[in-house]
Design a protein that fits this description.
The chain is globular and about 80 Å long. Helices cover about 35% and strands about 20% of the residues.
């Protein structure tokens, strides 16, 4: 038994003993990280993101460029390593060093002799990257420009959309992220019954466009109009012929958002509304009809839809079209409301004549926003987007952005690399497990880096197809 690699003994296999240790050499359990490198280079993501940071370090003593630090952090998040402490061992992974474009993945070119043999950055270095906007010291010299990072995310997301799209649906949502300390901006939220942040997210389909960290002492609609101004401008630049539909739950059904959309060309909204006595009174005939149908249906839930004009006494500047859903279930009445400026007769296309009638507008258009909640679950459960453990709000905002960029990498691998395969609709966690968690052996010589994946890996053909597709992406210039 080696003193440096103590053996772990398992139950015997017949007449054979089963013995294991950690002396296997330079292996990696994340062989699929090369696919992340491929999509990252094709998108130019970290190259663009690095331009949002100002590097004030002396180049003579720099081992890791800002882009390499971002590569290391984003790849680790995509691979499931959410904590900076993970990098104390992860930095020994030579395959991750290759993915981060370290010229010498053996780390023999490090400036200080005591660091040689380890190519990647330590957790303390990555931590200083996150804290540089909050601390002024000789060690914290890589501040970032928050406005540029948000613009970078918006630009990267918009570039994922087809240029000739005729319609773009922007989903808005506010998701509470619980915090477990005395973080800056903490506030108690009665809905979540805890202290948390309330970030604003905007997605088109599964593509993220906006991730803005906010304290939860404001409403869901706080700051949405400035966000929409930037989002719509970016979408107009990418998809000039598209009409834009803003979709969200009742937290976004407020005057300032609706009035802003109404003041824009080809910008529409479909937003939830909270119940009140006037709305329930207007929906009364439809509810009576639904109750009668429920009695005749033998217990099956029934729905009846109604459309009517409605205006609040003070908060709304004009009357608006409201769709009411009168639903009766075994548990009782379930009335819901949506406000929209989408025309009931649709647009010029004959196929859309019935699309915005009350029933299809609610059931097919509005209810489809629930898919965004599934995307946000991936952001939290698979990409650890709620890991807000630094004290400063600016640092936690940066963590939220990094998690969102990591999700974008996985989303592009899924969309561009796995289209038409069994992983075409996989969650980020499933994609990681089946495509990225591949055992690999790494051999580094003067002329090449030789990666040998496990021969027992079950998805070899799919991996090769994904590699072929991602390899065809041209790296952007400029």
């Amino acid at each position: 038994m080696s003193s440096t690699h103590p053996s772990l003994l398992f139950d015997d296999l017949g007449s054979r003993s089963v013995q294991a240790d950690f002396s296997g050499g330079h292996l990696s359990s994340d062989g699929g990280v090369l696919l992340l490198r491929q999509i990252n280079r094709g998108l130019g993501l970290t190259r663009s993101l690095a331009q949002c940071f100002h590097d004030r370090r002396d180049p003579v003593f720099v081992d890791h460029t800002v882009q390499q630090l971002l590569d290391q952090r984003l790849y680790a998040l995509a691979l499931g390593y959410e904590d900076l402490n993970d990098h104390e061992r992860l930095r020994l992974d030579r395959l991750l060093a290759v993915a981060c474009d370290k010229a010498d993945p053996l780390g023999l070119d490090r400036v200080r002799p005591e660091h040689r043999g380890v190519a990647l950055a330590a957790a303390s270095t990555l931590n200083r990257l996150e804290l540089s906007n909050n601390k002024q010291s000789r060690a914290h010299k890589i501040p970032h420009d928050p406005a540029k990072i948000q613009a970078c995310l918006l630009d990267m997301g918009a570039r994922c959309l087809p240029k000739h799209a005729r319609e773009v649906v922007v989903d808005l949502d506010a998701m509470g992220h619980r915090i477990h300390g005395m973080q800056e901006g903490r506030h108690f939220n009665a809905y979540y019954d805890d202290y948390c942040y309330l970030p604003l997210y905007a997605f088109v389909g599964e593509v993220p466009l906006w991730a803005q960290l906010r304290a939860c002492d404001t409403s869901a609609a706080h700051g949405v109009v400035p966000a929409l101004e930037a989002i719509v401008a970016a979408l107009r630049k990418r998809c000039p012929k598209a009409r834009i539909i803003v979709r969200g739950d009742s937290g976004f059904g407020v005057e300032q958002i609706m009035a802003w959309c109404e003041g824009q060309a080809e910008v529409y909204y479909c937003l939830g509304m909270g119940k009140n006595p006037v709305l329930l009174e207007k929906l009364g005939p439809a509810l009576a009809d639904a109750r009668a149908r429920y009695c005749l249906s033998g217990g099956a839930s029934t729905r009846v839809f109604a459309a009517f004009e409605y205006r609040t006494q003070k908060s709304w500047s004009r009357a608006r079209r409201v769709i009411g859903k009168a639903e009766v279930m075994s548990g009782g009445d379930n009335p819901r409301f949506v406000v929209t400026n989408l025309p009931e007769q649709g647009f010029d296309d004959e196929q859309e004549l019935e699309r915005f009638a009350p029933a299809p507008l609610y059931e097919q258009l509005y209810c489809a926003r629930g898919e965004m909640e599934n995307v946000l679950k991936q952001q939290v459960l698979d990409l650890h987007g709620d890991r807000m453990s630094t004290h400063h709000m600016a640092s936690n905002q940066l963590r939220l952005w990094l998690s969102t960029f990591a999700y974008l990498l996985l989303e592009r691998v899924r969309t561009l690399g796995c289209e038409g395969t069994e992983l075409a609709r996989a969650t980020a966690g499933t994609l990681r497990l089946k495509l990225l968690k591949v055992a690999a052996q790494i051999k580094v010589s003067v002329r090449r880096v030789y990666v040998q994946w496990s021969s027992a890996y079950p998805l070899q053909k799919l991996f090769a197809l994904c590699h072929q597709r991602l390899g065809a992406l041209a790296e952007p210039t400029g």
